What does this fold into?
Amino acid sequence: MRLDFDTFLVALYTTVDDLYRLHFAPHKPNRPGSGPRFSDSEVLTILLCGQWLGKSEREATRHARLHWLGYFPRLLSQGQMNRRARDLAGVLVQMVPLVASQLRAELAAYQVLDGLPVPLMRRCRGKRHKLFADEADVGKGGADKDFYYGVQLLLSVTPEGIITGFILGPASTNIRWLAEDLLCWRIDPQGEPWKAEDLPPSNKRTGSNYVGPRGPIWPRGGVGAASREPYICDGGFSGPIWTDHWATDYHALALTPQRYPEEGAEAVKAEHRCWRHVIETVNGHLEGALHLLFPKARSRWGLLTRIAAKLVAFNLAILLNRLFGRDDFAVATLFSW
It folds into this structure.
């Protein structure tokens, strides 16, 4: 049974407002002049609502002005909403692991690590002006291993589908470098992950993916908390140099199919694949219900704001579904108009 929109909007606003007042408002710098007439919680609520509708900040503000003015009588202009949304990008990033902690994700028996391609533009012939710098480039990904221009999103997900942390890198970056930064910053947010020069000489093959990250890997605030439980990974994370390094330096046990002994390996690998099924469900909801692919971003901060908002919206959907006794993964049918 879907929630009516009034119930959904009130529940979403009160949840967001409680989290914001408790964890972010005390750390907000005092600025001269009178306080804002439109609160940060209201900005976040409209931004998160827009994720279910597949709308950008501009479109979400226009939709709110046409349909939600009774809920938000002091709605800001489109330009003001865009600036406030970018200003709250850091809050959205930190809200991903924060909502996960509200869902008691730290009690999970394991977490699944997996990369998800996020194309930003369609491929075409000829030269076009690039909107992004080195944070996005051309790489291969997805089920078809096709080329795309965009970024790669690394997610850490519990067996219940809760996103506990994320990190972004250029599309061509090897997935191990994303995992390296995520696991390092989970232990120490100011830590220094491995660079190309830290790899053993035998791994430094010219032209290989071991040359190092192809661009910035960010943001640190979204990686989430460290876990002593195993990380279930696919073959792309394999390699004894990497997995031994993560276990020794970050206390992170990364289980890949290659780590299992030969005796009885097929049965264990089959169970390993079953453990990873949840990530496919999460990816499907992010792409289908929350419109992750081609997020219509035109700048680095716009990209971060929109991706973080979609991940927060997914975790909040699980939180609201549990609040109203619905199935955790009923994301696309959360509310009705």
User: Anything to note?
Assistant: The chain has ten helices and eight strands. Strands lie at 3-4, 111-121, 137-141, 146-157, 163-170, 231-232, 254-255, 335-336. The radius of gyration is 21 Å. Residues 107-285 form one domain.
